[in-house]
């Protein structure tokens, strides 16, 4: 028996047979020897031990010590909509994609400036219309096939040619004229106009030999392991059980080097409270999207570390402005009064974002402005006092009166057709924010003559109803990238969905003035001039208010510091860990190694221990027999 002291062993003497066959539960003859002494004694057994190994019923059986997989378990309180990277839109889904497939280039962990991925270098022509990317040499897919420029060309061409494949990332390629692979290591992208986001194409590069066999991007099979299981990122999708788990395994051939642990699990929880309890109990190792109360309660929890950071996400209230598809046909069943910009502005004036930040977010957030959060200061739009929507119910009432919406006998306003201003408010039942903020909105809008019915449903039902236009008001939000092109592109006429139910558009916004500003910023390569155009585009969106930004959450995260360390923040030292614009947070994590016993001469290597029955090592020597039990590692206990 091992005493727990790495320098000595407690051994069982002459009653080893009774101990071996379970007649005695412990030894009466016990003595302690040093480890070095034990080794000398084993060496002295010589031929006796060798002969014993040949005895039939008493012959020990060699057992290879297998280490349990080291697993980082992450709680998800948001559902997965798709693993297919061409159609995935949920933050949880795109996060999984960032681990599974490398990008051409990606934002660095240090400061989010572009760094190499599939491409090791890139160069623009003098007129900025042709970009040449040199593909990294020696990269392979997880099935052993080489990663080439042909894979990248296929990925972009698929998005350019198939509207269904363009749902998630179509905005990046709208300006592309032609994409070709000159050879295995040379990718050439030609654009119609200069494009400022060419080193910030947030598009997972997929293997052509797998995805070229996919006929329909809406086929549920595109979320299956046979399709999504072949990747090039730090982790590979190994198992997917909807609303239960996404299991990823470390990519041993990943070009930056394999992760320091074996598997990364994303485990679905119905709500954040259940996930917090799981963290406390050691059932998961990481959780994000914490409420203020949950975050504060975990600050002094033993074995738990918390992280607060400025976030890259914004929260918004969608106001269905008259949903249409790309052909201009009306879709959904939004209330027609919301097509009136005066109604949408009145709603904005009836809402107090300061209360939402202070009461619902517990002060862990920032007051709203434009679509780009303050963390990206160069592109953030801050409304001036003369145009900012302030909490002013009196002004909201006056605007609704001016627009001709009169109050009925019960205080609820009606439109010119006599239809009541009664709106459905859709939100995620799993989300604390939607549960609490909806009560405020119901009360505030009642005060200005608008009746609101709460409709809190599952994540996927929220996605289905909002992407198909079957909503009036809805809580939503998006993660933004260091380059603003993606989030601005989601608001253009070109982003309107090819069919009802696709996720290409955000708020069904289509405005000629906004589009002109968007395309001007996209082609402007002077950073200062581009930043000004980005702010002007946001100002137009703010004026037309197809959605109202409600605030910017601080990122509130917690993890088991007694199990994992080394989580990388983006930006370095001050940013978030989960849901980054990259994979650095979990890729850099390392298991906390066991300290008891050390790793040196205190244990036998795998395959050396010889066991009798349940794992005892019996050695016969002059003067007695010893029984040694294998030391348990921290992995066994987990």
TrEMBL record:
The chain crosses the membrane at residues 42-63, 606-628. GO terms for biological process: peptide transport. InterPro entries: SBP_5, SBP_5_dom. It is found in: Cell envelope. SUPFAM superfamilies: Periplasmic binding protein-like II. GO terms for cellular component: cell envelope. Keywords: Membrane, Signal, Transmembrane, Transmembrane helix, Transport. Its main location: other. PANTHER family: PERIPLASMIC BINDING COMPONENT OF ABC TRANSPORTER, PERIPLASMIC OLIGOPEPTIDE-BINDING PROTEIN-RELATED. This is ABC-type dipeptide transport system, periplasmic component. It comes from Saccharomonospora cyanea NA-134.
